[in-house]
Amino acid sequence: MSIAGGLPRAVERARAVGCEALQIFTKSSGQWRARPLPDAEIAEFKRLSETFDIRPVIAHSSYLINLCAADVNLRRRSCAALGEELDRAEALGLLGVVLHPGSYTTTTEEEGLARIAEGIATVLGERQVQRTMLLLEHTAGQGTNLGHTFEQLGTIITEAEKSLSGRKIGVCLDTCHLLAAGYDLGSDDSYADTMQQLDKCVDFSRLEVLHLNDSKTPLGSRVDRHTHIGTGYVGLDVFRRLLTDPRLEHLPMVLETPKARTGKTTGIEPDQMDIENLRKLREILGEKVY
Questions:
Q1: What is the residue-level pLDDT of the chain in tens, covering all 290 positions?
Q2: I need a surface site. Which of 32, 201, 233, 286 has the fewest CB within 10 A?
Q3: CB neighbours (10 Å) of residue 231?
Q4: Separation between Cα atoms, residue 64 and residue 53, nearest integer Å
Q5: Phi, psi of 250, deg, nearest 5
Q6: pTM, whole model, 2 decimals?
Q7: C-alpha angle 108-112-190 in degrees, rounded to nearest 5
Q8: 3-state DSSP call for residue 147?
Q9: Was domain 7-285 assigned CATH 1.20.1740.10?
Q10: 34 SS3 class
Q11: Nearest-CA neighbor of 207 among 154, 142, 277?
């Protein structure tokens, strides 16, 4: 949900649509600079989240952050920005901050994975007492983006945690990204195989949040293009498997599907495509449709 008009408005927008969990940016996703969060705004955000029982709330980090950058200055700036994102999320009492691992650009995959792990270890090492988790998002593998295989995520986590005492790194799965990266969920057997690979490489217990998005591009395309539930290559059968998997029923599931409206608004009126996408998912479970 948009934070236009202040962070509490995102909670009100979630309530208007009938959400039970929420994902936000705590700052502009396309800027390095972040405005300070006033104590009153933090308190109102927490109050509304509790009053409306919209929990957990998750933050998505800025798209500018690239812990994998070969340029030392960009990497240093990315580490500082990630630290600030975690501090803001901690102040707001959020479950975690979702992070795209990064792109290795002009270097190699192996060097890129090592830089990501080192950056994460540095940032989290300075925040050992924080409760907010870092959640690595599995990516579609577009360009030189890393994190599109479970093996890559496992390598990053293993290397980063070597220097962290008891600080657990979590994982976020995205249905569009899984399909685009080549992970097939389209049959019972392929779904089971994908989940077995996840458990082997990452450990299923690290899974903390799911992004439910259909895909405009087919299996293995390595192109990240989200679309509305049931209208793309992921399909309703996959969402049915995910929603009825007892291992996932306790996890927050977040939509990152396109909005009907374009441009910023300070209002809290429900977006009709949010309502439609939630309706399709709730109908799978036979739940109340808002």
A1: 999 999 999 999 999 999 999 999 999 998 999 999 999 999 999 999 999 999 999 999 999 999 999 999 999 999 999 999 999 999 999 999 999 999 999 899 999 999 999 999 999 999 999 999 999 999 999 999 999 999 999 999 999 999 998 889 999 999 999 999 999 999 999 999 999 999 999 999 999 999 999 999 999 999 999 999 999 999 999 999 999 999 999 999 999 999 998 766 778 999 999 999 999 999 999 875 54
A2: 286
A3: 15
A4: 31
A5: -90, -5
A6: 0.95
A7: 90
A8: coil
A9: no
A10: coil
A11: 154
115-131 b/e (C-beta count within 10 Å ≥ 16 → b) = bbbbbbbbbbeebeeee
DSSP element (H, E) containing 120: helix 109-125
The sign of the dihedral angle between the CA atoms of 287, 170, 237, 18 is positive
Task: Let me know if 30 is exposed, middle or buried by CB neighbors in 10 A (0-12, 13-18, 19+).
Answer: exposed
